[in-house]
Amino acid sequence: MTRDMRLELLAPAKNADTGIEAILHGADAVYIGGPGFGAREDAANAMQEIKRLCDFAHLYRARVFMTLNTIVSDDELPLALEIAQQARRAGVDALIVQDMGIAEAIDIKDMEIHASTQCDIRSPAKARFLESLGFSQVVLAREMNLDEIRAASQALESARIEYFIHGALCVSYSGQCYASFAATGRSANRGACAQLCRLPYNVLTLEGELLAKERHVLSLKDNNQSANLAALIEAGVRSFKIEGRLKDVAYVKNVTAHYRALLDQFIEKHPEFSRTSDGISTIAFTPDLAKSFNRGYTDYFTRERHHDMAVFETPKNTGEPIGKITKISSRGIEVSTVKTLHNADGLTYLTREKTLAGFAVNRAEELDRGRWLITTRDPVHKKHPQLAPGTVLYRNRDQAFEELLAKPTAKRVIALSMSWNATEDGFTLTLKDREGTSVTVKGRPEQLQLTENPERNRAGIEKNLKKTGGTAFVAHDVVISGDQYFAPAGIVNAMRREALEKFHDARLGSYVRKPRGVSQPSALDYPDAVDFRANALNEKAIRFYRKHNAVITEPALEAGGMVGQEIAVMHTKHCVRYALGLCLKDNLEKLKADPSLKAKLRPDPLILKTAADTYRAEFDCKKCEMTLYGRVRSKISLGYPRLLTEKIGKVEGND
Prior knowledge:
Elements: E1 6-13, H1 16-24, E2 29-33, H2 47-59, E3 63-68, H3 77-90, E4 94-97, H4 100-105, E5 112-115, H5 124-132, E6 137-139, H6 146-155, E7 160-167, H7 179-184, E8 201-205, E9 210-215, E10 222-224, H8 229-235, E11 237-242, H9 249-269, E12 274-275, E13 280-283, E14 297-298, E15 320-329, E16 332-336, E17 346-350, E18 356-360, E19 363-368, E20 371-375, H10 380-383, E21 392-397, H11 399-405, E22 410-423, E23 426-432, E24 438-443, H12 454-465, E25 473-481, H13 489-509, H14 539-547, E26 566-572, H15 576-579, H16 588-593, H17 598-601, E27 606-609, E28 614-620, E29 625-631
Parallel strand pairs: 1-2, 1-11, 1-12, 2-3, 3-4, 4-5, 5-6, 6-7, 7-11, 10-14, 22-25
Antiparallel strand pairs: 7-10, 8-9, 8-27, 13-22, 15-16, 15-21, 16-20, 17-18, 17-21, 19-20, 22-23, 23-24, 26-29, 27-28, 28-29
Helix pairs in contact: 1-2, 1-9, 2-3, 5-6, 6-8, 12-13
């Protein structure tokens, strides 16, 4: 196939206003939740707002993807399909889908469908299978390394690979985490994850030996692929996705601008590549990932397994290190730091118990270079008795940076050519973009006059034509002919305004949405699990799997019927034994020196306990994977798919 050389920066949008800011700050596409059935139930949006976002995005040839990526019941499927039709009418470019029943039932030819991260795509076979169904873009699992990504890319004929490059990491393979529903009835596959992975756990051996107390052993650092973009592009990634549909607009501005700069630098050095949207963004601040919410950063498995992926102390935003306390007195806290501190900054520190604590700065005063005095609203010794000289402080809120991002911080403009012509019949102004979209307007003063100074007249015409401020356009090329005819400023300005308004409408009217990918007649067999992990909750999904030679033996967990059973609630490439330094493979040198360590390092199951739940962690050292087993306590049930109401596991044959 012809290799796609277009790169897409894909940013999250909690709402239309956030999506607009993402585009202004350089996003080529945004993804947003619709009125329902999105995998972040707290990020739903009315269709009118999505239409407003689409109209703004399409002017820049940026695209809008809408999430429709939860699993749905038989009763919910008609509404999900109606939302899909509404999205098409609103101008949405693609639907992000997990439920194969929805994918099978959507009958829209002029809008793409994309495979959600919830589809659990971690093999070339799965990626190729989804492409054969007409999916135009597939989100690979965040656990895949560069070689695995490359293999998936080589298996595809036309579908584009989307990959998360920034933001929160799910510890489980996406779409394969059932801990939240099993324990609380809040389903990750239905947009309501309770994030049990962020809780503190006691880790014990089967014999009861305590290996870790109240540690966040399942809480991963945040994803940051800044250093790996070139390698990801070489491996075949074409859409670079930022996580965060629940993040605020300041986060989206900062992170989007950061990755826009990195991708632009790559394209400048490799001109055979281009971006998928139009327009140039001017950013009014210097992006800094350390100043946005993060739990510390990791590039996860992109360049293979390594230590320091998890952050055991806290799942909260610790912030950037700023320095150490040098003195505490009645005046306040003296801090040694090269950073500039501000009133209302948020500072944090780790307690002796390795938990995160923090306070707000009431007043920050620089005593001399590198030495600051901080005062707090409440006495330090009462609220924070553990603070002492030598304590390392972090800043998780930079007040000055937040105030800057609260203002307009970006402008994005589309380059136009302007052609002015004057004859004895009057004036003509033509605007044209690089795609060929053009408009022409005409004007004529009551009395056409020859000018005594053509050079000054030409300069005045050009100056007035370039006054495009307040619009999405900029004149990069102005051609003037007929400068012997005097052009009053009022007429030039009026013609420019009329032309820009008409061009705005013409450019939007010329936008063409990409069609759905073509399903292949000889579609492949479904390559994955056929028990409850297939997440089949409706009849359409069951029929879909049967058509692809996969007989579903159990409906989705959310159907009910498994209360009290022990199941695999989480399947992950993150390994608690490895993170605790107990991996046999990782300690071969130590084992050679001390063979007695083998008993401690053998991959026996471990027990993870919280106040409410107990899980058994088993380890597959050959695959370097961990599975957590726990009992289903939730009695919530959405009902079985109609095809499986009686004979679970006995459905045979094809439709």
